[in-house]
Amino acid sequence: MLNPELDLDALAEQYRLEKRLRIKDFLEAEVAAKIFQYSQESAEYRLVYAKDGQNVAMGMDELAKLSASEKKQMNLEIMNAGSKGEGFLYSGYQMGQAGDTEDEKLRFLHEVFEFFNGDALISAIRTITGETGIVSADAQYTKFTPGHFLTRHRDVVPGKDRRVAYVYSSTWGWHPDWGGLLQFYREDGSPRDAWSPGFNILSLFDTSHIHSVTYVAPFAQAPRLSLSGWFRGEAVPGVEREVWNVKTNLTPN
After folding, report:
1. Residue 2, in any domain of the structure
2. Residue 113 and residue 217: Cα distance in Å, rounded?
3. Which of 25, 44, 140, 237 is the most buried (most CB within 10 A)?
4. Nearest in space to 130 (alpha carbons), one of 246, 3, 51, 21
5. Which residues contact 111 (CB under 8 A, 6 or more apart)?
């Protein structure tokens, strides 16, 4: 699956500069094309959002059963959390075991995740990032459409030992004016720079980086598709590298 023409040593030199990197043409072209197609056709997305500080994942069938007033109230709660810099809203399909599904497209999406969590890619990521303690990956397919967003944060959670965050972008024909940018911030919380969604591009960055996914505009003409997660070390309960939580050291702006 991995593009055999990638120069891992050269990529490692680039990553060391800022502990972040975008890798174009990351996977073989045929694999990338299937991910783009199948993640739209077969991924079993759930609506993922924040409510009262907790993550909620709602199935699309459950969402359809809500009354107009219930949907309005849910949207108000999501927008209220977002206004405080604590919220998110997107469609996600969490990776795990493919089970006995007969859907070949769905099974392929799980095979891609198994590759991301396999020895060959883990070894490559260790080489690129210098994080020799990485032992596994987790992931979810995500789909951002108009109105979706992810407010600024760091990806550090005590005990999880997240070493490197990744976003494999499988988005075709995206216009930056549509939003959905992977936005980075300075330590004071002010905007730094942003990476636009693209096709067959892997973004890697140390979990200490403050980042967000900017609001997707109502006029966006395509979904923002990606496979995202973290490359992890051996998680130890109660132990985490010392990085301040974003909520404790950012000022509104």
Report:
1. no
2. 29
3. 140
4. 21
5. 98
